[in-house]
Amino acid sequence: MPVFSAMPRMLRELSADPDSGLLGFSLNFGAGGPSVVQYWSSVEKLYAYASVSSQEHLPAWTRFNRTARKAPEAVGIWHETFVVDRAESMYVSTRPMGLAKATELVEVSRGSNRAQARLADGRTARSHPRPSPQAEE
């Protein structure tokens, strides 16, 4: 439970700071348990947040590691980091999710009706307000 309760505090902290680098996130609940997908403006900002002891992440990570040694099978952590220079996401008759929800949704027009053209454009800048963690929970 401490691991599960630490994430909303981190997401609130990051969401309150427009310069944190967090572009958006998605809380997911599935058969494998809860998961969080986060989108960041740069890997440097991600690493900076993760290593500052005065913010939520580092103390929570330290507590997790100390506790996990006592019960190594109790909680699993899956962490992957990808650096994405350009991206293309397409939504037809569905709500925006994933990377486009965290960055920018661009209408498909005559000049961008091919996936190759949309990927070449690859806009991934934030253009709308970040959702609050409470709205996603």
Question: How would you describe what is shown here?
Answer:
The chain is an alpha+beta fold. It has helices at residues 2-16, 43-50, 57-70, 98-102, 115-121, 133-136, and strands at 22-30, 33-40. The longest helix is centred in the N-terminal third of the chain and has 15 residues, at 2-16. It is elongated and about 60 Å long. Mean pLDDT is 79; it is low at 126-137.
Short key terms for the protein model shown above:
137 residues; alpha+beta; 12% strand
Q: Please give the radius of gyration in angstroms.
A: 17 Å
List low-confidence stretches. 126-137
Structural class computed from helices and strand pairing: alpha+beta
SSE order, one letter for each helix or strand: HEEHHHHH
Note the main sheet.
Answer: 2 strands, antiparallel
Order of strands across the widest beta sheet?
1-2
For the termini, the CA-CA separation is 15 Å
Q: Percent range for helical residues?
A: 25-40%
Per DSSP E runs of 2 or more residues, the count of β-strands stands at: 2
Shape: elongated
Task: Round the mean pLDDT to the nearest integer and report it.
Answer: 79
Number of helices: 6
Strand content: 5-15%
In short:
This protein has 6 helices and 2 strands. By secondary structure, the protein is α+β, with helices and mostly antiparallel strands.
How is this fold's topology laid out?
Elements: H1 2-16, E1 22-30, E2 33-40, H2 43-50, H3 57-70, H4 98-102, H5 115-121, H6 133-136
Antiparallel strand pairs: 1-2
